[in-house]
Each structure stands twice: as structure tokens, then as C-alpha cells.
Amino acid sequence: MNITKDKVVSMHYTVKNNEGALIDTSDGKEPLLYMQGHKNIIPGLESEMEGKTVGDKVEATIEPTNAYGEVIEELIQDVPRSAFEGVDKLEVGMNFQAQSEQGPVNVVITNVSDETVTVDGNHPLAGQTLNFNVEVVEVRDATEEELSHGHAHGAGGHQH
Known about the structure:
The protein folds into 2 domains: about 5-70 and about 125-150, Chitinase A, domain 3; about 75-120, Thrombin, subunit H (Beta Barrel). Helices cover about 10% and strands about 40% of the residues. It contains 2 helices and 9 strands. The two termini are about 25 Å apart. GO terms for molecular function: peptidyl-prolyl cis-trans isomerase activity.
């Protein structure tokens, strides 16, 4: 069975950045499940998976535009330290949810000074080219429940 829209795919994967640093892997864990054609994974990898079948091994280099996008400079801002009232210790790498005109946005602290805190609302992998090694473990038809929810469910049913 080939990977096409509405198929549930089980795959093992490893993803590294262009410097060869490991970003994530399913090695030693359960395979990743996703439903093809429903934007459950980044667009570039979903395109690479189209038509593959069980046992296929895929090596794919996905540019930022087909992964998590380019870095948007406007999403990096210096805010007054007073905006973090009630937080005892501010450190680089801490995550917060900020309110924006478009609703809540997840931000990470990238710099802390006496007066300001620099926050970045970009996805942590924005601007990065991603290198995937994937092995297709299983391909099956999606269930009616999966189709109505728009994503794959793990063994035993619903796993949100």
C-alpha cells in the first residue's frame, strides 16, 4: 500500500540540522504516526513521503520554506523587564505565552539585561534546513474517527 492522502503512516525517523547536530529521533522509541495529506507533519517531508511504501527508506533535505519557515525579525522583540512582574528569575531559554493582536503566541527568552528581555516568537526550528532519514514501518487506511479528527490515533485509540 502506497502513502497517499488519508493513509496513516508509521515511520522511524532521525532529523539533523545542516551542521549534523541531532534535532530529534524516534530511535529507541515508538515510531511516529501521522495521517498523510492533513498537515500533521511539515509540508516538505509530507511531499517526500507521497507514494512511498512499507520498507522504503527516505533521505530528504527540507529547506526552511517547506519546514518551519524563515526567521521573521518582527517576532524578535525587546520588552521591558517589568512585563515579567512576578517572575523571580528570568533566564535565556525560558518559554512564556505572550498576548498579541492575533491571540496568544509562544515566545522564548533569548537575552536578559537589567532593563529589557529579548523574546523570540519564531518556531525554534525557523530558518533551519532539516535533514531527515526516514524508514516507513506501516501504511494503513485511516479510520472514520481519524478522518473526522484530521490526525492519526495510536494503538488503542484516541491519544491527544
